[in-house]
């Protein structure tokens, strides 16, 4: 009897233990456990391999917006450990001075930079067509771009976040997105005004100020530390741009005399400053938040700001503008190219930086001349190929001074990029992928 009672008691104890084991995950999934002793018992009974770190999606972002979802601190610590392990694996590789130039990231940055330059060249070409037709509406013609960004990205943001969380983001960070949109809208507006008042040579020379603003703001606000070789690369790119402008002046394709040089130069200086600030601000945003969220708010606030500005300043120009099917086609082309530009910029800001983005755009003048030879009958000066090679060489030298991660590892996100989002192009996602590959992590989700 004693043996039977002992056997039944053993079965009872094991049954209770199994039921406790089964019930606990369903009760505690997604929430911070309140029973420390059970957690410790479970950990002791189910050991994991020493080289494997298992973690869940971090709930830090949700906590910032007042949602009720909570993830245990152990999961966050495990994620941070996996990111740290991945970064260590990447940065500990045996590399040579040219190693980053052989990576897919470098060539993708160069490729995306040229796509952005072509987009800028196309928008300038369509703007020239509109101006020749007598349709000078700098604010109104850009409103369609922001409207298209809203139509594309806002539904995605609403689907990903939900109405409640989206409302929390508006209340908490809406003013920040408004500032970003305001800087971007005004940068576009004053740059167009500059080209209407001064010649192309003066406007493009002052656009160098945008690179100065980006480097200065990144140094003081984002704690980016540039090496001398990176500064040399930027200066070499600027030297290539100087050759382009000099050839424009020699061939007389700089626009000739201007209606009001002083006013146009001041507008160009203001536009370049606003561009530089907005580029740095957007780099900070896309490193911390999903791309679809940033672009959707940029579109929504851009429509509002541009709409008010167009109603005030473009009213008279709108009434005297030429409207026909050809003008409509140019507006469609302008909008599509600018939308592609805006949708691609966050990726190069994540993989590179605002400085890399601005330097890449220096090649836009080169592509502008190539198109000009076909459309406007320009003649290519012998300096143009040299200038283009100098700009590309400057980009190569800039990246020679960096690490194998390039500029994707942002200093303001912390050593392990803990404050950043694990999205496409970020160093955090690269580290997590490396950790998975090496068996150091599993089950992680990124956020685009």
UniProtKB/TrEMBL annotation:
It is a multi-pass membrane protein. The keyword Transport applies. It is found in: Membrane. GO terms for molecular function: transmembrane transporter activity. It holds the Pfam family SLC35F. InterPro entries: EmrE-like (IPR037185), SLC35_F1/F2/F6 (IPR009262), SLC35F_Transporter (IPR052221). Keywords: Membrane, Transmembrane, Transmembrane helix, Transport. The chain crosses the membrane at residues 106-131, 137-156, 177-195, 201-221, 228-246, 266-285, 292-312, 327-349, 356-376, 382-401. GO terms for cellular component: membrane. Belongs to the SLC35F solute transporter family. This is Solute carrier family 35 member F1. It comes from Corynascus novoguineensis.
